Amino acid sequence: MEINVEFGGGAELLFDNKKVHDVLLPHKEKEWILGDLLVWLKDNLLKERPELFLQDESVRPGILVLDTVNYVIKPNDRIIFISTLHGG
Amino acid sequence: MPKQDFEDLKLEIKRLREELHQKEEFLRERQYKKLQGKNVYNDQFTTEEIVRYSRQMIMPNINPHGQIALKNSKILIVGVGGLGCPAALYLASAGVGEITLIDYDEVELTNLHRQILHSESDIDIPKVESAYNSLKRINSHIKVIPLRLHANSLTIKDIITKNKYHVIVDGSDNVATRYLLNDVCVMNDIPLVSGSALQMEGQLTVYHYQGGPCYRCLFPVPPPPHAVTSCGDGGVLGAVPGTIGVLQALETIKILTNSSGVLSGRLLLFDGTNTTFRNVKLRERNLKCDVCGENPTVKTLIDYELFCGSSSHDKVINIDILKCNEQIDIIDFSTILKDNVVLDVRPKIEYQMCNLPNTVNIPFTEIEKDDVFEKLNKLFKNKLADGIKNVYVLCRRGNDSQRAVSCLKKKFSESPIIFYNVKGGLHAYSKFVDTSFPRY
Ligand SMILES: [Zn+2]
User: Fold this and answer.
1) Which chain A residues are within 8 Å of B174, Cβ to Cβ?
2) pLDDT in tens, B292-335
3) How far apart are CA B92 and CA B99, in angstroms?
4) What integer pLDDT is reported at residue B210 of this predicted model?
5) What is the mean pLDDT of residues B171-177?
6) What ipTM, to 2 d.p.?
7) Does B354 appear as a known binding residue?
């Protein structure tokens, strides 16, 4: 299943400093939920400092999640991870 | 020029500026006297006000009622920096009747590329004072109240109990102040116009507005302190907070004039690299939210620095992880700089911006990499052949260089090389050795 993953607000720094990633998720028996994707991203796409992305099986505080980890991913979904900014 | 002469000159300039200001006022009063009093054509505004605000007042969106609402409004802007300056500028120009400014900092040279209310002659004076002067020059009809203080639970509580603000504009630069302002706004039922910016990106939303979510609804737990980047470390292009600050003014004006379309329950993401604006729908107000939920657990202001585990400013906190004999004082370092190996561990771009002669740039983030190890190994071998075994590690403020020394010591534990941290880094160099080295 092909999806589009996007990082912003500095979260891209953990992913090779690239904001947009075309991702091909391998086929599996059960449907892909957001929680699965988090783990998959950690194992396959994350380049450094995993503790700045995942904590206790969810994204760390300060990264915005607008859906629950149970969200079922559909082909061609665009999933965006936004780290909050604090500078002024 | 001796120090006393500088001080005398500064005082003289200040006096002349005040004199100039008085003369300008005097001229204005004489010239426009007839326009500034009551008139028989409108009982709310002076002739000058009508002409001044006409371009916005003739639109249905504002109209005379909206302009009266702006005139009768009191707002609080926290932080007179990259966001607060453009926000205050447009709010003052639009005729918001009373604007209170809070900031503890003084104007620095590194502020001028984005904090557009401050100018070269304002360096070292409080930001609120500089902003006050700029805003009053632009609009003398409104009231501007400069408060030079650090926003924390005590100071904010004091100000809030004495005043009724219609909107608070968050132009702060740290997580603790963002939670503080959120809680203040929820507890006192004030909309919070929140903006932030870093590097080429900006974010904007309005919290606690007409049943919409608050900051805590979305972020119940503060981020780990080491995951937060400041403008001083990550950098920021002035036009980016400029864009967000101007939009904060726009949202504030819409709230004050009771307009529709306020950015509540939505988050605007601005990416300056490709000039995209994206609106994401936020989750609704969380009924279990600690502060705005149905059974709130946070009912009075707390200690936000403790809650966030980080301080309520964006200054760097210095570390001290090495022993005395692993460090060298900056003055001693300056005398041996020529004949030794000096590693500058700042990012490559910062090294390109300015560097000491005869230094080698090995960015701290790359220090663990294999090819870097090989490169250093070769360098150290050559130096050892020349009888040099001391290696001095340098960075911007002397923190990353300490971490680099710890790391290099482990990597080269087999080697006779001895690593030293240059205490205080290039900041200390600029301060105590050569002030012409740029302190940024
Ligand atoms: Zn809330």
Assistant:
1) 86
2) 999 999 999 999 999 999 887 877 778 888 888 899 999 999 99
3) 8
4) 97
5) 95
6) 0.88
7) no
3-state SS string over A18-80? CCEEEEECCCCCCCCEHHHHHHHHHHHCCCCCHHHCEECCEECCCEECCCCCCCECCCCCEEE
pLDDT of the residue at A40: 94
B395 is catalytic: yes
Q: Any CB–CB contact under 8 A between B241 and chain A?
A: yes
What does the pLDDT read at residue B55? 98
- Packing angle, helices B84-94 and B239-256, rounded to 10: 40
Contacts of B221 in chain A (CB under 8 A): 61
Dist. CA B164 → ligand 1 center (Å)? 21
Measure A28 CA to nearest chain B CA, in Å.
30
Domain boundary assignment for chain A? 2-83
Give me chain A's average pLDDT, please. Answer: 89
pLDDT beyond 80 at B230? yes
Alpha carbon distance B194, B204 (integer Å): 6
Burial label for B108, CB within 10 Å (0-12, 13-18, 19+), is: middle
Tell if the CB–CB gap between B236 and A85 is shorter than 8 Å. no
Query: Residues with beta carbon < 5 A to ion ligand 1?
Result: B 214, 216-217, 289, 292
Q: CB count, 10 Å around CB of B317? A: 9
CA distance linking residue B184 with residue B358, whole number of Å: 53
Contacts of B365 (CB under 8 A, 6+ apart): B347
Distance from CA of A61 to the nearest CA of B (A): 5
Separation CA B25–CA B46 (nearest Å): 17
Catalytic residue among B85, B185, B231, B308: B231
Annotated catalytic residue B354: no
Q: Give B241 to chain A, closest Cα distance, Å.
A: 7
Q: Could you tell me how many residues make up chain B?
A: 440
Q: What is the mean pLDDT of residues B73-87?
A: 98
> From 3.90.1170.20, 3.10.20.30, 3.30.70.270, 3.30.420.40, which CATH number describes the A2-83 domain?
3.10.20.30
B201 → closest Cβ in A9, A80, A88: A9
Give residue A21's pLDDT.
95
B236/A51 touch (CB, cutoff 8 Å), yes or no: no
Angle between helix B153-162 and B175-188 (nearest 10):
30
| Torsion angles phi and psi, residue B145, rounded to 5 | -115, 105
The backbone torsions φ and ψ at residue B348, rounded to the nearest 5 degrees and listed phi first, read -55, -40
